[in-house]
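Query form — protein Nicotinate-nucleotide adenylyltransferase

QUESTION: What is the three-dimensional structure of this chain?
INPUT:
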Amino acid sequence: MIDIGVVHGRFQPLHLKHMEYILAAKMRCRKLYIGITNPDNLHTRESVHDIRRSERSANPLTYFERYEMIRGAMAEFRVPESEYDILPFPISCPEYILQYVPKDAVYFMGLCDEWDEEKYKILKDLGLNIEVLWRKTLAEKGVTASWIRSCIATDQEWTHLVPKSVSAYLTSHELDKRIKRLEQMRMAEKDASLL
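ANSWER: The structure tokens for Nicotinate-nucleotide adenylyltransferase are given below.
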């Protein structure tokens, strides 16, 4: 077991596949740093491999809201608070990454698409030690946050796709309503552009 590991994601919202990734990394290290990408509007840029990632509808939750969801889910999965921490991880502004996370950690990744490959290259170019937990095809990827946001927007069942604590947090803070409104606005704009 290694001392320090790092994972990262947007967690918009945190779902069960995110938890699979986080917990797989946690099993390999004593202390895990969970990096939240797109922590704010200043550290959010487009990528040729994921052009929607910078849109408002793809980033409906604030850094603080995602921080709270992760803490709740880690408690739900009984990970002691002393064994993890949550930090900003500005993957879109790689020049700032090492101002937030330790250089001497192992950076755990799951690779499923071109955006993951781009992130892998970003971290490799920073000279970081990367361990790939798995490689999956898009078909094998399973649940995605964009799918969950779409389910929320179209009144489909979604709560079984996220930890119970996340479902409770989203609904008790009415964040599901914000997600629905932003996703519906995006779909309406898309439909208008087709006319």
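ADDITIONAL NOTE: The CA atoms of residues 46 and 55 lie 8 Å apart.
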